[in-house]
Structure formats: C-alpha cells, structure tokens
Amino acid sequence: MNVKVLLVACLLPVLALAQGFAGLGTDADGFADPKPNPRFDFPADHGPHPDYRIEWWYLTANLQGADGTAYGLQWTLFRSALAPGEGDGWQSPQVWFAHAAVTTPDLHLATERFGRGGVGVAGVEAAPFRAWIDEWVLEGPDFDALRLFAQGPDFAYGMDLAAQGPLIFHGDAGYSVKSAEGQASYYYSQPFYEISGTLQLPDGPVDVTGHAWLDREWSSQPLSDNQSGWDWFSLSFEDGAKVMGFQLRQRDGASYSASTWITPQGATQAMANGAFVATPLETATVAGREIPVLWRVQIPDRGVDVSVSALNTQAWMGLSIPYWEGPVRISGSHDGVGYLEMTGYE
Amino acid sequence: MKRACLAALLSHWRRNPLQLFAVLAGLALATALWSGVQAINAEARASYDSAAATLGEGQFDQIVPKSGERIAQVDYVALRRAGWLVSPVIEGRLGEVRLIGIDPLTSTGAFDIGQVTSTGNLQQFTSVGQLFANAETAAKLDGIEVIITPNVGPNIAVGDIGVTQRLLGRRDLSRLTVLPDQPLQRADLNEIAPSLRLQPSTQTADMDALTDSFHLNLTAFGLLSFAVGLFIVHSTIGLAFEQRRGVIRTLRALGMPLRTLVILIAVEVLILALIGAGLGIILGYLIAAALLPDVAVTLRGLYGADVAGTLAFRADWWASGLALALLGTGVAAAGRLWHIARMPLLASARPRAWAMAAGRAQLLQALAAVGLLFMAATLAIFGSGLLAGFVLLGCFLIGAALALPVIARPLLTLAERRAKGPVAAWFWADTRQQLPGLSLALMALLLAISANIGVSTMVSSFRLTFVAFLDQRLAPELFVQIDDAQKGPQVQAVLQGAADAVLPLLRVEGTVAGQPVQLFGVRVGPTYRENWVFLDEGAKAWDRVHDGTAVVVNEQLARRSALWVGDKVTLGPDHTLPIAAVVGDYGNPLGQVVMGEALFAILHPAVNPQQFGLRSSDPAALRSRLIDLGIPDSAIIDQAGIKAFSLQIFERTFTVTAALNVLTLAVAGFAILMSLLTLADLRVPQLAPVWALGLTRRRLGQLELMRAGVFAVVVTVVALPVGLGLAWVLLSIVNVEAFGWRLPMFLFPLDYTRLGLYAVLAAILAALWPAWRLMRTPPSALLKVFAHER
User: Fold this and answer.
1) Is B306 a member of any domain?
2) Chain A partners of B74 at a C-beta cutoff of 8 Å?
3) Does the beta-carbon distance from B105 to A116 stay under 8 Å?
4) C-alpha to C-alpha distance for A56 and A58, rounded to whole angstroms
5) Beta pairing partners, B568
6) Vertex A9, ends A7 and A10: CA angle to 5°?
7) A226-280 confidence digits (pLDDT tens)
8) Average pLDDT, chain A
9) Considering the domain boundaries, does residue B2 fall inside one?
10) Do B33 and B150 belong together in one domain?
11) Would you list which residues of chain B are within 8 Å, Cβ to Cβ, of chain A?
C-alpha cells in the first residue's frame, strides 16, 4: 500500500462518496449542508466554499482538428476538506487534487496532481477568476473568458475559452437532489464555451477548436448509502439544445435519475426522476472490468431517442481514484457530441 | 552395522571429552566472532537501508540550497507553479532524534506511510501532529503522540511537514525531492530559484559507501578470529584422526567398507560442525548485542549514520557464519579423510608422533610463507584499491604466521647450543621438538598479537593526529552558526564589535576536478597561519591564498585527483589557480578547497557567511555578550564542546577495538590451552624417561610453564615487526583507499611491552592447567610407559 492508495483509503472518502463508492459515512462532521432555494452570489460563488466537504471545477470539451478528427479533453480541480474552514499555512485542512486527460480516437492520456491548501500550490480565487494547482490553471479576467493549461509526462494542452451563453442552474435553481432520501448538492454549469487551442500529443502538436462545458458543484454528503455509482451525460445536439442527465445506480438494481434540458438560448427545464432513461447496450473490457460504452438514451418528453457511443472505449482514468470519462458521439433522433462519466464499475 | 560403526567412532569423543570440548569450543569461538561481526555489519546496513528508504535518499534527485541548509517555502511553491514536481522535506533534530517532515500528498511514496497508517487518518497526521518512529526512538520523544512502527529507520521520526515545522520552530524547508515523472514543460531551475541546485541521486552521500571501510575493518577482525578458531579445529580434528588410526584399522579389518566408513566420518564431522557453529551463532549474537551500542555511537559520530541499538536475528549473518564453519571444518577434515581413503588396510596403527617426520611439510610451509610475503610486498608496491589493500593484509598476516615455525626453529636451536647443563639442553631440545605440535596454536597467538599491535597503533596514531587536527580546526574559542544566510552581513557587523577577531567562514558546494567538493572562503589571519599544519606547502602559502592567487586543498581531493602542491585547479571560467598547500583533513570524506575571502566573493557573490569563528581571551564573557546582542544561545557553539564530543566518539571506537582485541587474544590463549592439553597424553612417553632420570614431576611442571612463557616471548618478538607492518598497511594503504587520507604513524613502545606481557601471561595461564595435570600425573602412569611400550 503506498501513499496514493492511502489517499483513497482515508483522505478522499468524500470523493469516493461523490462518485458513489461503497461504505461511506453519511455524517457531516460539522460541514455545512446544501439547503433548498439557494441564492448564489457571483463572482464569489465561483470561488471555493471551504465549509463544504467537497467541491469541483469540472471542465470537459469536445474538440475537432483541422482534418476533422474528434478529440476530447478533461480538466478538473477538486477540493476536499479534512475539516470545515480554513487554516494557516500547512495547517489548512483543505486538500486539492486535479485530473487532466486528453482523448483521441485511439489514445487516452490521463494524469493527476495533489496539493495542500494554505501554502499557495493550489487554490481558487473568484475575481479575477483563477483556479490552479501547480502549473495547471484555469484563469481569466472573469468567468466568461478563461485560459486553460494542464500537462503530464506525455501530453499538454493550452486553450482559450469564451462563454457564448448564460450560466445554467440544475435542479431547483441550482439545488440538485441526488437521491430519493434528499441528498443534494449545489450545482450549476457554463455549457456554452467556445474553445480553441493546441493539444501537445506524443505525435506532435494539434490545433483544435470545439465546445466546452464547465460544471461547478459543491456539497457535503451528496450520495445515499445504497447508491453504488453513477453514469453522467452531457449531450450537445446539433440543433443547439443540450442535456445534462445522470442516473445514480442503486445496489438494489433500481436507479435515481435527474436531468436538465437546456435550450439553445440557455433556458432550462429540470426533469424529474425517470424522465431521463439511459440503458447500456454494449460493454467493453476496460482495465480488466466490463464497462458500458454504447448507451441508448431516451427522453420521451422531448422526443429524444439516441444511441451514445464512446469515441474511444478505453477512456479509462487509471488514477488514484479510477473511473471512465471520455467524449461520446450521438446519433438517432438527434445527432451531436458529448461527454460521459461512469463511476463505480467494479 | 552402520550404527555400531558410528558408535565406535563417537566413543572416541566420550573417552576424550577434552578433545570434544576443544573442537566444539574452537568452532563456536570462530563462528561467534565471525557471525558477531557480521551481525553488527548486517544491522548497520539494514539501518542505512531503512533510513534511505524512509528519506527517499539515493533514489531520487534532490533540490538543495547552493549554500546553507535551508530552502525558503516560497521557492518550493514557485517551483511547483513552474511545473517542477517536487516534494518538500524538512529535517532537523529534536533532542537527539532526527525529525523529518514530509508532505504525504506529494511525497514519493518511498516512505511507506500507507502501511504504517492503515488504521490512521490523514487528518490525524497533518493537524493533530502525530509522528511515526520505531519503539526505540519513540521512547526518546516525550509529550508527542508517536505511532510506533518498525518501518521507520532508527533514530528517525517522521511527521507531517507542517507539524515538523511547528516542532522545530521553523517555517522553511531543508530539501525538495524531485519526483520521477516530470511533465513535458518546466521552467529552468536557475530562473525560478537561483539559490537552489539540482543534486542528482547518484551524488547523494551513500551511507554504504561512506561506511564501507569501517565495516571492512570489522569484517577483517571477524575473519581473523575465524582463522584463529579454525586453527584450533584443524589441530584438534587432526589429533583425533591420528589417535583413531587404530580404531579405523580395526573397523576396516572387521569388514567395514571404506566408502561407508568415510561417509560415516564425514557425517560425524558434520554433526560436530553443526553443534559448534550453532553454539557460535548464539555466542556471536551475544557479542554483537553487547558491542552494537558502541558501534552505533561510532558510526553516528564519524559518519552521521544512524544505526539501531537493538539487534535483529537476520538470516544473512547467521547463515554466513554457519556456512563458513561447515566449510572450515570440511577443509580441516578433508585432508584427513583423504589419508584414510588411501591408507593400506593393515597399515601401522602407530600414531605418527605429530608431524615428527614433517621435514618436507616444513619446507613447503617455508616456501608458502615466502610466496605469500612476496605477494604482499608486490601488492604493497603495485596494488591499488581497497580490496588489494585487504588482500595484501591477508597475504602478509598468513605469510608471517606460516613463517613463524621456520623462524622459531633456528632461534631454539641457538638457545640449545648455548644451554649449560643437561636439564637446560633437554629443555630447549624438547621445546624445539614440541614446536610442530604447538605451531598452529602459536600462529594463532602471533596473529592475535600482531593484530593487536597493528590495530592499536593505527587507532592511537589516528587519535594523536585527530586531536592535533581538532586543535587546528577548532582554534577559535567560539563558533556562531546562523540559519538565515541573508542575515550574514548583519550578524558579522554585530560580532565584529564584540570579539577580538571574527573569522567568517563562507561555504558552498561545487565540483572541482570532476569531484563534488566543498569550497570554503576564509579570512586569512594569525589564526590560520599559526594553527594550520600542512602536509606539504609551497613558499608563502597563506600570503598567496590571501591575495587570491592560490588555494589550499585537502588531502582527500589531492589524492583522489592526483594533484599536489604547484598543480592547478579550475574554480571558475577565468579562475585556474595553483595549489599552495595540501592540508590533512580527518573530519570528513569529501574534498575541500580553501580560498581567500576576496576570491570567494568574486566567484560566489551571492553566498553570505553563515558560520563565524570568534577569537576571545574570555569565551564565557563573549558568549553572554553575544546573547545580550540578540544572538540565540543555541547558535553559539564553544569549541571545547565540539572537541569533547569528537573525542568521546573516538573513545567509543576504542571500546569496540579494545573489546575485539581482548577477544582475539582470548581465542589465541584458548588455542594454546587446547593444544597443550591434547598434546599432554602424547607427551607422556617423552617425559617418562626424564622423570625416571630424576626430575621431579613438580620440576617438570615448572618447566612446562616456563616453556609456555618462552614460546610467548618468541611469538611476541616475531609479532612486533608483523604488527608494525600491519599498522603501516592500515595507515598508509587501507586508509588512503578508504578515506583518502594517509595518517602519520606513531610508535607506542610502552603499549607493545604491555601487550607482550599480556601475551606471556595468556600463554602461562593457558599452560597452567596442563602443567598442573602433569604434576599430578600418577607415577604409575609414567611407569606404564616402560611396561607397555605403548
């Protein structure tokens, strides 16, 4: 057992919690809990909320090279608090970690970083916006114009992002319920970024353009004990409409789903449990386990019946906390692209 | 039949319990010292390994300050922000415990914290302030929550970086570990943190290499004792075989196949070897356990290496002890078995009176001795490397031992010629006649005495030189050591007014002549001119150093790079300077270059002094004055303290050496005792006629004692030059190879005289019991000689 496994074992129960892993406590240890009818205060709420146990700045992008090749990238900064609040220097209970990945049709490169709060190696500031860990950054004068950078031993990317629409609030005005028992988080997104930049891949640099989706979420106990994992979809249709939908799988075989329909103008409609139906059609062997890589997604209310297939079935994030995350293609009643995250597959 | 045969063979030992005791004790002693020494070595190495694993030293590149010992935390953050994947480490002493702070989130995982905290919790580690240490270390940490784990190296406690900073009262770092997988793009280190430098993992001081010579010395001691022990085994087994010729002839005559007989004897020897070696391993464990604390202090003092004070029962040392014991016994028995295998069925069962007809063997021995000594001489002249040094030692010692009977014989013949009266003539003749039987025991004594002379000469010479060196280097009455290099000039200004003279010491690590060295800038003045003794110097050495036109290098650098006074060293792009003098340096294994303050400032303008030597006629008053001026008491070191500490370490080294000396001498004494006892029965036929001619048993006993004394004197006389030769090899060859310095050799005639007396005493003590037995031999036993014709 090495240090990184230790992290999983005792440092990051909350991430595991968020990702639906087993055996997680539901006590909140003095952490704040999300309450219904939130009133967000921007730009302050783009910054960290140290009284909550877990928080993330989660960016995914569907990209295209000049030759039409599809790519995907992920940049995520997590904050996990060992105790609520802030402390001086190394005494800060805030722990930061980040994941970055690039996906091509036949390659998936992923890497991660860890950093302690309080000393300056990682953190988030609201205005001007700056989220960073080591040399990785997501920063800009404000949330609508950002610069992105991340790198690992075998890849790097530098991108510019410009928001083309408003922020989107999921659930009940940003209060997103995660189970029938009422576990919830604060959850909003900016799904309207235009993105362009350069991917540094093992075969050389590739200039790309595309669309990016940034999720902001924080909570202290988002999952219920009987939930084992989740499948999260962000889908962008060619007509400009978008959908965020997830289903939380329960140990008894049932699931809890929630979704948000987003019009091209940014108007939203939260859809109730059961409105968003995702059914696995095919699996692939990834990192020694069977993972669904072809899905049928139905939203009967909106006339959506599409198949969602992985651009690269091997988009496995083999990091301290392993999960599957990669770009997808959509075809059927609607065409488009999107991102898929799947956790809790043993 | 096999059982009956084995019973017949074993009955020999029942009838001769003393021989059985000699074989077992010889084997046990040999194995004991060997495995004891190996146990100490194994424990020390295991300690280095666990310390290295705890610290991640040697496996990863490190970022360290160019000068001083501290890294600002902002530099760490700046490096991380520039793409350098580094993990911070802070090191300091909490009392005598080495405290290490790590960041578990970014550390390399070399410190296996996962295992030690399987039930733990990161929050406990980072905010509550837990430390991890082994039980021995934990006992030294009062009032701190310590989780006990065997995974942490000896005398080390590991904690979270923030907790450790708090405990040490610091806000900075000691070094940064460079993680193996670095990202694609990184800014240049010099751009981000110009005061830091990258130290490749291969250049990290490797404890194994540093302490190798110390362990080789111990190993040599162990091997020596083993050789002495095997002499005992060899002679006893030889005697037993001789005495059993009759039994063997009878068994063969009764129809025992030769093959079965040889196998049975081999099995018998194997059983004896296993029992003896087993006892030896237990004994060795006890010896090692007793010596280990002193060895640990020595290693910590001389090399800064932490060694656990408790001993683990590790397979590598007891297995090697067992293997060597079996091998040694096997070699001793093989020759005899070969004889038995070739012996005609009904050969005379009369025991050959112990190598009496060994004229040819003696010639061979003399030839072997000359050959070995010649090889030693060749190695001394042409050999190079530490291994060659030890082979030289081996050849020299064994050659000298083999030469002993060859030298002793003419001496005894000479004495016999000069003897007056029949008793004296018989005494010398009989002494000479006993030489072959006792020669192995005497060789053992020779080895023990010469090792004693050699090692104590080396250690005492080292002490004299070292004390002089300490006087030279610690001439200033007080030292002030500050942590923050930025404050150097400010502190210097404060000191200037308080002390009679201030000697700032500028220090930086660098590479000269392809070697990692420490570069020093000094303020040349009377303190240096009067106290430093050079091994060799050119004209006006200090004047030239002061002017910046020459440098002083230490002996280590000079010898390793084959440089000497007058040769040139390159210190910078435009600075290639001649060596003005070479100075003896016994404090560290690294090369050093000493230059004038002004030149140092040109070459390393960014380096401020962090160490100051202060001259004063009243150190106590100066000390309180400095404290009044705001210099913390802990930053002021008085030289008497350092000196006392250094000498104390040295005394511990002596304790170990002295203990090993006593043990080898004891083994040699035991060898003599056993030889005399086993020879006693054989000698009855030789003594009976003398007794019959009128010498009383009492007189015979006195003569026996005297003979032992004479032998000891002869051996001591031969051992003296051998021991001095040994000391010379150790000082001039082994030391140069191991440490890079040559020590001047001093002679200690009083010590040698005392040692000679001890040797005589040991021999007489060893002869006491055999002589007493001889005095008590019933006349009937002596008479039987004539009746039985044996």
Assistant:
1) yes
2) 120
3) yes
4) 6
5) B578
6) 70
7) 788 889 999 999 999 999 999 989 888 888 899 999 999 999 999 999 999 999 9
8) 88
9) yes
10) no
11) 73-74, 76-77, 80-83, 85, 103-109, 111-115, 117-118, 120-123, 126-127, 160-163, 165, 171, 181-185
DSSP-assigned states of every residue in A76-140: EEEEEESSSS--SGGG--EEEEEEEEEEETTEEEEEEEEEETTTTSEEEETTTTEEEETTEEEEE
Write the DSSP symbol of residue B608. Answer: P
CA A4 to each of CA B305, B497, B595: distance values in angstroms, whole numbers, following the listed order:
30, 55, 48
**Test mutation, B71, B73, B79, B80, chain A, max A CBs within 10 A:** B80
Q: B57 pLDDT exceeds 60?
A: no
List of chain A residues whose C-beta atoms are within 8 Å of the C-beta of residue B183: 111, 135, 151-153, 156
CB B373: neighbour CB atoms within 10 A? 18
Query: Which is more confident, A338 or B780?
Result: A338
* Contacts A98 to B, Cβ<8 Å: none
Asked if residue B629 is part of any domain, the answer here is: no
Q: Which of residues 264-293 of A touch B (CB under 8 A)?
A: none
| Helix (H) or strand (E) segment spanning residue A57 | strand A54-65
Lowest-pLDDT range of A3-7, B162-166, B336-340, B615-619: A3-7
Q: How many residues does chain A have?
A: 346
Residue with tokens 């050496």: B657
Interface of A with B in 63-82 (CB under 8 A): 82
- Assess A200–B contact: CB distance below 8 Å, yes or no: yes
B66 & B196 share domain: yes
**B50-71 average pLDDT score:** 72
**What pLDDT is attached to residue A254?**
87
Residue B729 phi/psi, 5-degree rounding, is -60, -45
Q: Do B121 and A10 touch (CB under 8 A)?
A: yes
Tens digits of residue pLDDT in A73-82: 999 999 988 8
Which token pair is B8?
């017949």
pLDDT tens-digit series, residues A45-62: 999 999 999 999 999 999
Give the chain B residue whose CA is nearest to the CA of A2. Answer: B114
**Separation of alpha carbons B679 and B667, rounded Å:** 18
CA-based nearest residue in chain B for residue A120:
B77
Q: What angle do CA B306, B312, B317 make, to 5 degrees?
A: 100
Q: B224: helix, coil or strand?
A: helix
Question: Quick one: B315 exposed, middle or buried, by C-beta within 10 A (0-12, 13-18, 19+)?
Answer: exposed
Final residue of a structural domain among B326, B351, B376 = B351
A132 touches chain B (CB under 8 A): yes
Please report, for the domain that includes residue A300, its CATH number. 2.40.370.10
- Substitution target in A4, A94, A114, A116 with the highest count of B β-carbons within 10 Å is A116
Q: Number of H helices and number of E strands within chain B?
A: 26, 18
Tens digit of each residue's pLDDT (9 = 90 or more) over B320-362: 888 878 888 888 788 778 877 776 665 544 444 444 445 666 7
A48 min Cα distance to partner chain B (Å): 19
Structural domain count, chain B = 3
Q: Into how many domains does chain A fold?
A: 1
Residue A24 binned pLDDT confidence (cut-offs 50, 70, 90): very low
Give the E-state strand segments of A220-254 in sequence order: 227-237, 242-250
What pLDDT, on the 0 to 100 scale, is given for residue B588?
64
Asked if residue B138 has pLDDT above 70, the reply is yes
B394-451 tens-digit pLDDT: 888 888 888 888 888 888 888 888 888 888 888 888 888 888 777 777 887 888 788 7
Domain that holds residue B141: 58-203
pTM of the model: 0.60
Q: Does the distance separating the beta carbons of B107 and A6 come in below 8 Å?
A: no
Q: Residue B627 has which token pair?
A: 């404290």
